Amino acid sequence: MSNLRRTLAALLAVAFVAVGAPPAVGAGRLEVVVQSNGMIWNSVAADHGRTFVGGLRWSGSAGPALGQLTADGGVAPYPDVAWNSWRPGTPAGRTFVNVNAINLDGRGGLWAVDTGTPEFGGDPLPGGAKLIRVDVATNRVSRIYPFGSDVALAGSYIDDIRFNGTHAYLTDAGRPGLIVLDLRTGAARRVLDGHPSTVAPDDRPIVVDGTILRGADGNPLKVNADPLELSPDRKWLYYGPLAGPWSRVPTRALDDPAVTPDRLAAQVRAWADLPPSGGTAMDALGNLYFSDLAQNAIKRRSPDGRITEVLRDPRLHWADALYLDPRHQLWIPVPQLDRAAIFNGGTSHIHFPVQLFKLSM
Predict the structure, then answer these.
(1) What are the 10-residue block averages of pLDDT along the chain, 361 residues in total?
(2) How far is it, in rounded angstroms, from Cα 92 to Cα 114?
(3) Are the CB atoms for 154 and 182 separated by under 8 Å?
(4) Whole-angstrom distance, CA of residue 293 vs CA of residue 321
(5) Does residue 54 contact residue 99 with C-beta atoms inside 8 Å?
(6) Cβ burial, residue 301 (10 Å; 0-12/13-18/19+)
(7) N or C: which end of the chain has fewer CB within 10 A?
């Protein structure tokens, strides 16, 4: 009987694998790096034993706008208290108003994208919308790139960034379009302004836990140009609204100010029909890792277009800006943004502690 029971158990196990949730593709396991009962982080960057996190002001985060994890599991304001000291009514040019994204450039720089908008859906404050580079060796701000009113428009929400040599590309999730920044001169240009590839479509709602996410006005929330990635050869920029689909455009055309809007628009091509995603990361082989908001999952799109599930876990509720470190570890902040007060009649439903995960790929 014992042999029969073991045989039946083995058969049931095989059957469960066949019809149950897809097994994880990535090697390793989901590890909790740190958790917080106050800071709601939506972005992370890590390298050489240091981990930086950013937290959105409008989410209700009680921590610094930009911080570094400490040995005891806390978060210290980074690069200092002064940069994290903005309050309503104070100048916005040399403090963090609302950090939406951070990134490391591999050359000693930590970059922070400041929307300059303390409220979700608001207008950038004078001098508030900017890109800040911090030298991680000296822990000092080495350069500030302000975005003027011709780049950060009324209703703009400067969202995320990727680097390509002497240029940086940013998305505008509020006023749909892309921003091309010359890192040498500081000159910034809006491109693909209002182009269909940057506009959130009406027929692709953001669904989380089976419910359509709605804005403060009660209508389905629309987030324009948001995620973006560069191909490993740096020839293509991939981008799209939060809810998809994604498009691609040649970086050579983006970098050339002489390319007219019509000529640039003519070079946009459809790239990938991906579901609503909180964050993405692309590796050196061209594999795109993205969070699937509807399924609390991390998925991978290979260069041939195949999509596989890496991991599904209820703790990954609105996994946001993913970060792939040099050791091929995927860092996953989980801010639960759909539960923020602005989307829930003024009452936050965020479950504490807020967690930061790491997955060895």
Answers:
(1) 36 30 51 96 95 97 96 96 97 98 96 97 96 98 98 98 97 98 98 98 96 96 98 98 98 98 98 98 98 98 97 97 95 98 97 96 81
(2) 10
(3) no
(4) 12
(5) yes
(6) buried
(7) N
